[in-house]
Design goal:
The protein is α+β, with helices and mostly antiparallel strands and 161 residues long. Helix content is 25%, strand content 43%. The protein has 5 helices and 8 strands, in the order ββααββββββααα. The protein has an 8-stranded antiparallel beta sheet. The longest helix is centred in the N-terminal third of the chain and has 9 residues, at 25-33. The two termini are 16 Å apart.
Amino acid sequence: MPVTDVQQDLDNLTLTITADFAAPVERIWQVYADPRQLEKVWGPPTYPATVVDHDLTPGGRVTYYMTSPEGDKFAGYWLVTTVDEPRSFSFDDGFADLDFNPKPGLPVSTNVYTFTEHDGGTRATYVSRYESAEALQQVLDMGVVEGATAAINQIDDLLAS
């Protein structure tokens, strides 16, 4: 399994997930740069993602929805803030309605995804920062650790295909 560490830090308002992949940095970058590949790993296996818009450039927007086993759709968005291809990108990630308008009252996280060479492969570090300990606790209670871990662990299957 690629995920090697998960750190929840309510004092610093962060969730940090570390994963190691037996693939070069450029290949891991492509998982996020290509919307069809991103769909295969964004969201846990039982909630497949559909990427609607995908503009991975500063100021760009990525919109998506995940479909539950019962057919319910849950939408979200990224507002891309920085891109340093193929090493890192940052974005604000939020919950949305099905027209991709931000849902008030639900947490928005500021994320930095970094890919570095490590032991002949890539170490990915996913850092999400929340506005408050309550916002972080809210997503923890929603199962973000389990969902994100399951999603990231799908990358190995994508790399093998």
